[in-house]
Write a structure and sequence with these properties.
The protein is about 25% helix and about 30% strand. The chain is built from eight helices and 16 strands. A seven-stranded mixed β-sheet has the order 12-11-10-13-14-16-15, with helices on both faces. α5 links the parallel β10 and β11. α4 packs parallel to α5.
Length: about 290
């Protein structure tokens, strides 16, 4: 059982509000940043609207703190502007994020690790704990579809921007002998957890800033995956000299109005496209070095 108290505040005051509530013993708060999505040459960006008023929620169980009195007396909110709601178990279940299995319609399913089974299909088990890279985005699904259609027996793979590790795991499940997964965030625990769900043990995780640190990628790979974005892919390719370190590269996270710069870069280095798929505006392409 949970009690919810809601007030409306300027977004720019939200962090200060959290700190002040912590000082009086109220630690469970929630608010969403008001954002405006903008189209850019590289896809999409967003701007936080600092002056916008937002609902700010305070949660408490059965502790003996009169939250309404605290908000009224110590933070000067009029009583009529403090909204209260008692949250039942059904309310909480309704607010929990859901993950539905994703049938890739090619004999594979991205599945939550429960007891469900799919006759005649292979499952890639995933417990999505992050945002991007969970398998939910269309670009990631397109990458997985392509990877599991390949025979990677005995091949080496570099997965840049690995996120949950889904592309690394997919490569391992179709035979890759060695996978190195790289992300700027500390994702090792999540990737190893998802790998273990699939009984995969050949993935090594590195936390690296590959966009702003030159030549940290030094080995040779049969395949390199870059599921990040168009401009980001170009920056990483140039910073790491990736096209001299592989014969195959899979690039995703591009939008259809920003693929030309990537295609021209690959063409100039002797690569030709061998696969292209588009889901809504998002484009995924694979390239092979011409002999």
């Amino acid at each position: 059982m949970l009690h919810e108290f809601t007030v409306h505040i300027p977004y720019k005051k939200a962090d200060e509000m959290v700190e002040n509530l912590n000082l009086v013993g109220l630690y469970n708060t929630y608010y969403e940043a008001p954002i405006e999505v903008e189209t850019t040459s590289n896809g999409y960006d967003y701007e936080e609207k600092e002056d916008e008023t937002i609902p700010f929620h305070v949660y408490i169980g059965e502790e003996e703190i009169d939250v309404k009195a605290v908000l009224h007396e110590q933070f000067s909110f009029p009583e009529e502007e403090i909204h209260y709601r008692f949250l039942t178990e059904e309310d909480l279940l309704g607010q929990a994020p859901s993950f539905e299995d994703i049938d890739l319609e090619n004999g594979w399913v991205i599945a939550f690790p429960d007891f469900s089974s799919y006759e005649g299909k292979r499952r890639l088990l995933l417990d999505p704990q992050g945002g991007f890279g969970t398998g939910l985005h269309g670009t990631t699904q397109d990458c997985v579809r392509f990877i599991v259609s390949q025979n990677l027996n005995g091949q080496s793979v570099l997965d840049l921007g690995t996120g949950s590790g889904i592309l690394s795991i997919a490569a391992s499940l179709v035979g890759a002998r060695m996978v190195e997964a790289v992300d700027i965030e500390p994702v090792e625990r999540e990737v190893l957890y998802n790998a273990a769900l699939n009984e995969v043990s050949n993935i090594t995780i590195h936390q690296l800033d590959i966009m702003h640190t030159e030549e940290v990628i030094t080995a040779q790979y049969d395949w390199i995956f870059v599921n990040i974005g168009g401009d980001e892919a170009v920056t990483i390719i140039n910073a790491q000299q990736l096209l001299s370190k592989t014969s195959h590269i899979l690039i995703s996270g591009m939008v259809d109005w920003n693929t030309l710069v990537v295609e021209e870069l690959l063409h100039d280095h002797g690569f030709q496209p061998i696969h292209r798929v588009q889901t809504e505006e998002w484009v995924t392409m694979a390239f092979q070095k011409m002999k």
